[in-house]
Amino acid sequence: MASVSNAGPSAGMSADGLKVNMAFIAAIVAVATIGGFMFGYDSGVINGTQTGLKAAFNLTEAGEGLNVAAILLGCAFGAFAAGRLADVWGRRTVMIISALLFVVSALGTGGAHTSLVFVIFRLIGGLGVGAASVLCPVYISEVTPANIRGRLSSVQQIMIITGLTGAFLANYALAHTAGSSTAEFWLGLPAWRWMFWMQVIPAGIFFFALLVIPESPRFLVAKGKDAQAEAILSRLFGPGQGAAKVAEIRASLAADHQPKFSDLLDPKTRKLRAILWAGLVLAVFQQLVGINIVFYYGSVLWQSVGFTEDDSLKINILSGALSILACLAAIAVIDKIGRKPLLLIGSAGMAVTLGVMTWCFSTATMVNGALHLDASVGPIALVAANLYVIFFNLSWGPVMWVMLGEMFPNQMRGSALAVCGFAQWIANFAISFSFPIMKKASLPMTYGFYAVCAVVSFFLVQKLIDETRGKELEAMQG
User: Fold this and answer.
1) Shortest CA distance to 457 belongs to which of 384, 350, 312?
2) Which helix (H) or strand (E) holds 316?
3) Least confident of 16-20, 329-333, 380-384
4) DSSP character at residue 58
């Protein structure tokens, strides 16, 4: 099996005193997190293209919502299928397929001449995003030591935000150079089409990079390929440790049956396991707090309250940069203070900042048929929005993906990720599809709903979520 070349001796120690090959771990984590970049880029590229889409396809508010949110339906089914397919074909193989789907989607959406064709290719891209969203974190969690797993898994969220920010930068550069997103650019085609075609570059890099990393050793053990798994684990954790790690994984799998969806049911009550309910809470409420309204509709939102298209695209870039800084802060503390405290801090911070945004938008007035914020309120809304983004990316942004990748026992991890990933993307679709309609009805009520969800999430985390910091994957209980 192809793999990244060994970069030399170990550069670190795990919590139990084992030498670990940090160069090798860092290399394969870097490749895996390109999937996070593509997740962010493919999701965020829509932000800044809506004006072109509405003009090209003559879209209503509902039509705009469908064109923006279509990718999320694909994400739901991609996440659902990927969790199970990864148990059959392997984590790496399914990620390679997702990279190819990114390329196809980029070419098709940029060239679409009807809304239907556009939606179809966004659905195809969504299959790739959904697969990458669940498999990249679980792959990382399966090749990293427990004491640094949270930090390395959090890199996924940084790459998601970097992908979003990369899309914002590319969209701004193209629109600014052309004059606007609808102005002609290369080959006489409007700039918004090139915004989609630019995705081919990172998608191609992701595809070729995946060809040189190994398969997850935990998947290999589940498939009875102990020798291959032992070789990879020896390179990860040092000579002589491969056999011991294989034995640990083999014991955790219970050696009784291949993973299946019935593993999600409590064997005594035949009801969904409590750990799955906890995962569903994390997956769904990460979306119900409304974060992707900022990332998908940021340009439209700020233009709707008086900012120019050029300034709105710059605000997108600012939000992306602040998100990256917040994720870096999360990486610094997630393995020190734990996952649950960060979730609680994030819920509280988002509730307050969303409440401030609700108040700000409630003061908006209609000017020439469009909302307009008073000069004294606009800066408050902008600061509150960016503080909200910071709180999210310090907490729920990275922590949800970290926990979904590590909180489930080996036997049910693929099935649980399929269900939680599906739920996460359906919630994302519901929020994103409804925003143009809700915004037209009442922007303050829309943000008030997100604020209430943030408050509810605080109490659900307190009640349902258990800390996973420092636990080996083989020690996770269902």
Assistant:
1) 350
2) helix 309-337
3) 16-20
4) T
Q: Are 54 and 62 in contact (CB under 8 A)?
A: no
C-alpha Rg value of the chain to the nearest Å: 22
- The HSE-up count of residue 280 (CA atoms within 13 Å, CB side) is 12
**Residue 319 CB-half CA count within 13 A:** 32
CB atoms within 10 A of CB 178: 18
* 421: amino acid identity, one letter: G
User: Domain spanning 33-213+259-470: which CATH class is it, in words?
Assistant: mainly alpha
CA 44 to each of CA 32, 41, 120, 333: distance values in angstroms, whole numbers, following the listed order? 19, 5, 18, 27
Q: Any idea where the domains of the chain sit in the sequence?
A: 33-213+259-470
Q: What confidence tier does 296 reach under pLDDT thresholds 50, 70, 90?
A: low
Of how many residues is the chain composed? 478
Q: Give the Å distances, CA to CA, from 254 to 1, 263, 264.
A: 27, 12, 15
Q: Is residue 366 helix, strand or coil?
A: strand
- Report the distance separating Cα 448 and Cα 367, nearest Å: 23
The pLDDT of residue 240 is above 80: no
Q: Are 312 and 299 in contact (CB under 8 A)?
A: yes
Confidence of residue 470 (pLDDT cuts 50, 70, 90): confident
Q: Which string of b and e fits 17-42 if b means at least 16 CB within 10 Å? A: ebbbbbbbbbbbbebbbbbbbbbbbb
What pLDDT sits at residue 115?
92
pLDDT digits (tens, 9 = 90+) for 22-34: 888 888 888 988 9
Residue 9: the pLDDT is 39
Beta carbons of 319 and 385 less than 8 angstroms apart: yes
As beta bridge partners, residue 265 has 272
